[in-house]
Amino acid sequence: xxxAYMLMGHFDSRRDRADMHGGDVQVVGVSSIEDAxxxxxxxxxxxxxxxELCGAFEEAGARAVIAATGGKVAVSYAVHLPEQDALxxxxxx
Length: 93
Prior knowledge:
InterPro entries: DUF6506
CATH architecture: 3-Layer(aba) Sandwich
Pfam families: DUF6506
């Protein structure tokens, strides 16, 4: 099974990528929700079946990626426990 993890930030999705296990696992940095949707469509066309998103996407971003892939790719996003809010605020602002 092919899967991908997307990070959103100051990235260029064409070059900020890493592949593992012969390309079955991919990590891609994207710059925006729009970039993520375009990247997700390409990943789906390349056979990726599951995309995990970093927490910056939140629910709305995850829904946008689901829509971009026509609901044919399993999409989830990372969250953290509320007791770690201060740490995440310190790290990500």
